[in-house]
Amino acid sequence: MLEPQNIEHSSSKEEKDYLFDYRDISVDSLPTQNFYGVPFSLLSRDEAIAHIFHFVETKEKVRHILFLDPLKFMLMRKGKQLNRIAQKASMVLHNGAGIHWAAKNHKIDLKERFSIISLMMDLFRYSEKNHTTIYFLGGKEDILEKTYYILTRRFPELRIVGRQAGYLSKTREVMVKEAIRKTEPDIIFVAMDFLEQEKWIENNMQYFGSSVVIGISGTLDVLAGVTKAPSYLQSRGLTWLWRTLTRPWNLHKMWILSRFYSKFLIPKNK
Known about the structure:
alpha/beta, 6-stranded parallel sheet, 44% helix, globular
């Protein structure tokens, strides 16, 4: 297990700069760019965090922050049944370099590529100083506990009001939804496999109150220090690619990825 002082992440701020001032960033509008039917948010990481905490503070309604890698993008682009999830999300961000590269080849500038773990670390640091409440749902129990151990030592004042491993039975799922309803967390991190994660969030929005719900897939493995992905891939937000390559039962996903790269390999105007 990684010790708290050994957590590696890329933060948009210096370590000494504990109190971030995102209030100077305008949140009056959230610009988007359509790319094959997906409304990607045109934001820098600081702007994304400012918008997320604006959602937390205003508590107007439940908000879904959707991260798309090439695999998810292929299954959520225009004409696909799951495109409805992308259309309903409050914010759509691209995870890693793949989509950023593909959009550039089609003369579309998505502004900045995102690493889920880097954005999460900035959210944790800001949340600790603003008493934002956090709930974790999903992942294996041992991974979740390791993550909790590391975060509570790295961020001793971070308010984690609940955590529940994935693979829920029907009875357990009802209890988890009730726990979320009672604790009313500001931010819920959902760590499930795709497509289960996105479908579960969509089907249970009514239980989240005015929370900001962020799907983080297998990022808990990185936070817990148990991922085997090379640091080169981790730093570029490509841990999802490593998981796909190293799991034989993901061959159908490899086919989808091959279609993504063949479709966007040749630069052209869109």
